[in-house]
Design goal:
Radius of gyration: 18 Å
Low-confidence stretches: none
CATH class of the largest domain: Mainly Alpha
Number of helices: 12
Shape: globular
CATH architecture of the largest domain: Orthogonal Bundle
CATH superfamily of the largest domain: Hypothetical protein, domain 2
Mean pLDDT: 93
Largest sheet: none
Structural class: mainly alpha
Order of helices and strands: HHHHHHHHHHHH
Strand content: under 5%
CATH topology of the largest domain: Endonuclease III, domain 1
Number of domains: 2
DNA sequence: TGCCAGGCCGGGT
DNA sequence: ACCCGGCATGGC
C-alpha cells in the first residue's frame, strides 16, 4: 500500500535530513520566503547576504530603508522592484499588528487568523504564507509548491487539475500534523524537484520514488 | 545559447 | 472562472 508516509521515508533515506529553513531568525525566514518566489536559492542567498553585510536584516532597519534602496540590495534575487514592494507590504502588516516589530507576538497569533492576514498582503500567496507559518511560526501547516505538484502528478498520484488546497489537504489529512515532519517533508520534496522533477524533464526515470508503482488515487 | 528557478498579480476573454 | 504576460537575475 502506497502512502505519503512511504514517500517521506524513501525521500529521507535518499537525501537525508535537510534541517530547513536555511535562515537563523524568523525575520530572515520571512524575508527569504518572499525573495525565493519563483527563484533559486543561490540567488536569494546573495540578496540575503547583501542585507546582512549592511546590517539591514531586521524589522527596524528594513522599515527605515527606502524601497528603491531595498530593491538595489536584493537585485540578485530577481524581480527586485516587485519584491522590494512586497517586502514593504509585509513590513506594513507587521507594523499594523505589532507596532514595535515584536515578531513573537505577531507569529504567536491563531494560525487561521495569521494566515488570512498574510494572504491579504499584496504579493503573498498561499505558498509564501504557508512557508512563513511553518518555517517562521512553527505552525503545523503543510507547504505545497510546484515540485509537490510535479511529484504527485508525474507519478500519477493525482490528476492534473488538482489545486493547491486539495494537495495541501491530502498531506494534512493523511499525516500526523507535526511541525518537524512537515518541515522535513517539504524540504525533501524540494530536493527531489531540483534533482529529478525539473520542468524540462517530464519523466523522472531514476527518481528515488521509482520503486513504487503508483496508481491514480492510491495514496 | 536558451531554459529554468522553493510565485503572484492583473488584465483580458 | 480560466488563461496569459509580466516581473529579472544568475547557473547550467
Amino acid at each position: 500500500m502506497l502512502t505519503l508516509g512511504n514517500i517521506y521515508s524513501a525521500l529521507l533515506a535518499h537525501f537525508g535530513p535537510q534541517n530547513w529553513w536555511p535562515g537563523d531568525s524568523p525575520f530572515e525566514v520571512m524575508v527569504g520566503a518572499v525573495l525565493t518566489q519563483n527563484t533559486n536559492w543561490s540567488n536569494v542567498n546573495r540578496a540575503i547576504t547583501n542585507l546582512k553585510n549592511d546590517d539591514l536584516l531586521s524589522f527596524e532597519a528594513l522599515s527605515a530603508l527606502p524601497e528603491g534602496m531595498l530593491a538595489e540590495k536584493i537585485r540578485p534575487s530577481g524581480y527586485y522592484n516587485l519584491k522590494a514592494r512586497r517586502l514593504k507590504n509585509l513590513l506594513a502588516l507587521i507594523s499594523a499588528e505589532a507596532p514595535s516589530g515584536d515578531l513573537d507576538s505577531f507569529l504567536g497569533q491563531d494560525t487561521g487568523q495569521l494566515r488570512s492576514k498574510l494572504l491579504s498582503v499584496k504579493g503573498i500567496g498561499p505558498e509564501t504564507a504557508d512557508s512563513i507559518l511553518l518555517y517562521a511560526g512553527q505552525k503545523p501547516v503543510f507547504v505545497v509548491d510546484t515540485y509537490t505538484y510535479r511529484m504527485l502528478t508525474r507519478h500519477g498520484f493525482i490528476g492534473e487539475e488538482t489545486d493547491y488546497y486539495e494537495m495541501q489537504d491530502l498531506f494534512m489529512d493523511t499525516l500526523e500534523r507535526d511541525v518537524a515532519l512537515f518541515n522535513e517533508f517539504h524540504a525533501l520534496i524540494v530536493c527531489l524537484g531540483k534533482d529529478y522533477c525539473r520542468k524540462s524533464k517530464p519523466r523522472c526515470q531514476e527518481c528515488p520514488l521509482g520503486k513504487f508503482e503508483p496508481v491514480l488515487g492510491d495514496l
